[in-house]
Design a protein that fits this description.
8 helices, D-Amino Acid Oxidase, Chain A, domain 2, 8-stranded mixed β-sheet, 20 strands, 386 residues, FAD/NAD(P)-binding domain
Length: 386
């Protein structure tokens, strides 16, 4: 029998980052059902940092995370986590143009927001776009690729450095209230903990069900990505021989970015699925090629590899951080959707403050209840175990 302050369930970026933050002031055990950490969403993300991405609360987390990434590199002895790469939003039809205009209007006063550019400038920045297809465009200069693996490893290294422990191959098979705390059965180990943090990604509601805690109504969605061969790699050159920006369609009907001499493409699909080891669907891969080919004319035909990951949301598509009032000591840190990596530094610090009751980080301009399970307007009702 092990006694500990906090058990964090889930070894992806959410679990590793909040476990690291909590370990600054308490004993922490991170448990993961897989034999290796970060095998699902974290390992399969396109891993980009995009200021202006998402609804206003998410944009606040993204903005606060930017400077925190730089501090983490020094704090955790991590390699450079950012590789600058602008993101180009390109509207190719009236619907996309209207969506882009709405986003620009909403974010006009925010630092790091997309900046409108004319179609000719978009074409200059990304010469692979078919001439005459861009109706409206905007650029995010402060965007970057993120090294998700290095970030995750740094968090785990930091957790251990603070005295925290990690168990892999230890699926949670039992959670029961014991006095003021919890008895957690993880694989062959039994742990008594004062508190549990449910950071199990797509499986967060499954873990809540084991504890007899109401679910938050999480829906996992499959997202497909493929790496495709470009017949003429010489075309993958931006201005002055630089690499291409990442290109995103405003309604997220596709995105693509250069990966060496190939192109990473996605139809930005969202197919509801059960929590699982997601696999790419051939039709989604074909759709990605079709949409990106229509925008570029690169002659895309050959897929080198394809994969799929899960993006999990509650109805209002904001993260869930907090506990149901009737179930104190069982904390959710889930529902990050497609922003889990780019928001992880700020969200982990915010979540740790919620769990410990400590002061909120001053660089995260959100109220303590901003992501609570019962927040007004979230579309989240307490959903008991079926």
């Amino acid at each position: 029998m092990t006694n500990i302050d906090t058990v964090v369930v889930g070894g992806g970026i959410a679990g590793a980052s909040i476990a690291y933050e909590l370990a600054a002031s308490r004993s922490v055990l991170l448990v993961e059902g897989e034999t290796a950490l970060a095998r699902h969403s974290t390992a399969r993300s396109a891993a980009t940092y995009v200021p202006g991405h998402g609804a206003a609360p998410l944009r606040a987390l993204v903005a606060a995370s930017g400077p925190r990434f730089a501090r983490l590199e020094a704090e955790l002895d991590a390699p450079p986590l950012f590789s600058p790469r602008p993101v180009l939003h390109v509207a190719l039809d009236a619907d996309g143009e209207a969506q882009l205009a709405a986003e620009l209007a909403e974010q006009a006063a925010e630092p790091g927001a997309p900046v409108p550019i004319d179609p000719a400038e978009a074409q200059r920045r990304c010469p692979v776009l078919r001439p005459g297809t861009v109706r409206a465009a905007a650029v995010v200069e402060g965007a970057a690729d993120l090294d998700a693996e290095a970030l995750h490893q740094a968090y785990v290294r930091g957790l251990r450095g603070r005295g925290g422990a990690v168990r892999t191959g230890a699926p949670v098979i039992g959670l029961e209230r014991r006095g003021g705390g919890w008895r957690v059965r993880a694989g062959a180990e039994v742990v008594d903990a004062a508190e549990v943090v449910d950071a199990a990604g797509a499986w967060a509601d499954v873990v809540a069900g084991l504890a007899g805690v109401p679910r938050i109504g999480l829906t996992p969605y499959r997202r497909t990505i493929a790496l495709v061969r470009v017949p003429d790699p010489a075309r993958l050159r931006g201005p002055d021989g630089a690499g291409l920006p990442m290109v995103v369609e405003p309604l997220e009907r596709f995105y693509f970015k250069q990966e060496g001499d190939g192109l990473l493409v996605s139809p930005a699909d969202e197919t509801p699925v059960e929590p699982s080891d997601a696999r790419p669907d051939e039709l989604d891969v074909a759709t990605a090629l079709e949409r990106v080919e229509a925008a570029t004319g690169l002659g895309l035909r050959s897929v080198r590899t394809a994969w799929a990951g899960l993006r999990s949301f509650v109805p209002d598509r904001l993260p869930v951080v907090g506990a149901w009032p009737e179930h104190p000591g069982f904390w959710f840190c889930a529902g990050q959707g497609g922003s889990g990596i780019e928001t992880s530094p700020a969200l982990a610090a915010f979540a740790a403050a919620v769990v410990t009751g400590g002061p909120l980080p001053p660089d995260v301009p959100l109220e303590r209840e901003a992501f609570a399970p019962g927040r007004p307007g979230a579309g989240i009702a307490a959903k008991p175990r079926p």
